[in-house]
Design goal:
alpha/beta, globular, 4-hydroxy-tetrahydrodipicolinate synthase, 10 strands, TIM Barrel, 12 helices, two-stranded antiparallel sheet, about 300 residues
Length: about 300
């Protein structure tokens, strides 16, 4: 189930509300272009600004639009264990296939606290659990040793790794075994992670270039690293441009420029302006052959 490209979906808004029609169209575009799965309500989906009702709406919309064609990994993590359990049960109720569980942020638990947090969530659900290790945002890292303990829980299936450390990825593979899924959490790190035994990527860039990112990952997973490297370097300007400001500002702006949705965001995030917007436009123009055609949109 967890192999290939899983798009960390943006959440389209219009006039302050979730734009359900645009979200449905995004799901269809992703599936038509070969992604392996969808991840609603992650960081890229502006989850911190969504209400509980909106979380349910977004996850249920993606599940309904996907219609069983690809798995849906719902972001249901929290820095409160009780809230993470509550949201995970909600995602299970509306038909998600798995849950993405971020390390509790701001309160900086110990490794034992992290273990007990994730264990409690896993024990509350039948869903598969993908851990999300992104210390740059959360302020705390899940150690490979803690992951090895968590990997012994039957429904803890793997990790989205955003540490930018191949040493950490190597230790995860060494300690957690071959069955434990490792997904890159950063588009530029996808090929190195796959080379160390990773299974793919939870991608931001695939929001606007699903076909190209899928082709790159498929090539790498099939052992054709020459083709995968070629595509990596073709995609590299997009990888960089979509992070010139805080994610998801650039990718949502890019999606708007391509006609996929509006560029409406919720404070404290703001749409791009000025020099960065011009740089993004220029990269999109130069990368046109990697992007959906107007007919596809």
């Amino acid at each position: 189930m967890f192999r290939g490209v899983f798009t960390a979906l943006i959440t389209p808004f219009r006039n302050g509300e979730v734009d359900v029609e645009a979200l449905e169209n995004l799901v269809e575009l992703q599936i038509r272009n070969g992604v392996s799965g969808l991840v609603p309500c992650g960081t890229t989906g502006e989850t911190p600004t969504l209400s509980e009702e909106e979380d349910r709406l977004v996850i249920s919309t993606v599940v309904r639009a996907a219609d069983g064609r690809v798995p849906v990994i719902a972001g249901t993590g929290s820095n409160s264990t009780a809230s993470a359990v509550k949201y995970t049960k909600m995602a299970e109720e509306v038909g998600a296939d798995a849950s993405l569980q971020v390390a509790p942020y701001y309160n900086k638990p110990t490794q034992e606290g992290l273990y007990r947090h994730f264990a409690a969530v896993a024990e509350s659900t039948e869903l598969s659990i993908i851990l999300y290790n992104i210390p740059g945002r959360t302020g705390v890292a899940i150690s490979p040793e803690t992951m090895a303990r968590l990997a012994e829980i039957p429904n803890v299936a793997g990790v989205k790794d955003s540490t930018l450390s191949m040493s950490v990825v190597s230790d995860i593979r060494r300690l957690c075994g071959e069955e434990f899924v490792i997904l890159s959490g950063d588009d530029p790190m996808t090929l190195p992670v796959i080379s160390l035994g990773g299974a793919g990527v939870i991608s931001v860039v695939s929001n606007i270039a699903p076909g190209a990112v899928s082709e790159m990952v498929d090539a790498a997973l099939s052992g054709d690293f020459a083709r995968a490297r070629e595509l990596h370097y073709e995609l590299l300007p997009l990888f960089r441009a979509l992070f010139i400001e805080t994610n998801p500002i650039p990718v949502k702006t890019a999606a708007s420029l391509l006609g996929l949705c509006s560029d409406e965001m919720r404070l404290p995030l703001m749409p791009m302006t000025g020099d960065n917007l011009q740089k993004l436009r220029e990269v999109l123009e130069r990368s046109a052959d990697l992007l959906p055609t107007p007919e596809e949109v």
